[in-house]
Specification:
five-stranded antiparallel β-sheet, globular, disordered C terminus, single chain, alpha+beta
Length: about 110
Amino acid sequence: MSPLRALETWYARDCDGDWEHSFGVTIETLDNPGWAVRIDLAETSLAGRPFEPVRIERAPDDWLRCAVEAGVFKGHGGPGNLHEILDAFARWAELEPRRGRASAAEVPAMG
C-alpha cells in the first residue's frame, strides 16, 4: 500500500460524520521549498498514541522532520520528501509501509 493510499485508508476509517467537520488533513508547500503535512488526531484512533520525533538531514533539499504536537501529526520535508512524510505517518499508524528507501521509522531521531 502506498503512503497516500494508507492516509486515505486511515482517513476513511476515522471519519465518523462529525470528526471531518472540525478536523482534517492539510498538505501544503513550503517556500524553502518543501512540504508541510498536518493531520489532526483529536477524536481518532491515534489520539494519545506516543510518537518518537523524526529528524533526518541528508542534504539541503533532502530532509524530513515529523512530530506529534498538541494532538496534531506535523511533517515537514524537502521538495522530494512528501512520500516519506506520509510513509512516517503510515508506519506510525500501523498501516502497511512502502518498501525501498529508509523511512522515518527505520532512522532514529537526531537530537
